[in-house]
Structure prediction request, 176 residues.
Amino acid sequence: MIREVLRMGDPRLLQRSQEIQTFGTPELQALLTDMRDTMAHLNGAGLAAPQIGVGLRVVIFGVHANPRYPDVEEVPDTVLINPVLTPLGEEMEEGWEGCLSVPGMRGAVPRYKRLRYSGYDELGRHFEREVQDFHARVVQHEVDHLDGILYPMRIRDLSKFGFNEALFPGQALPEE
Ligand code: NI
Prediction:
């Protein structure tokens, strides 16, 4: 079911979400179905459970090249639960981000360039990956949602925050 995405200003987006304790349940499957439906409906690159008002540490993401976003770096479709992020090195990189909870806008956000992330899939199987660049950026953006952080809170130079049509006229841009 497509759910309403909460927008910046809603206090539920500012709370720390809780760990999933039990995997493989119908409730968790229903949550993931709703998250996938909602993300697909909005052509999103990622979605965190608190964005649909569910305060649990569950995120999904995935990006594929398509005519709308021909230049995008691909990211595999992933369900990540109770994530742990470990930066690999201290190198940070600024890059443009958008968010389904801040629709129509974009800001330049510093993120770790490389990191390891680990967590669980919906059946409770543990996995970890080492990633960099856009994949690393998407994971950091989504996991921030679980700690009540929205990307505008991380922008260092607010002159690099604005509306999509003004910053990037005529371009369709993915939001997370
Ligand atoms: Ni977001």
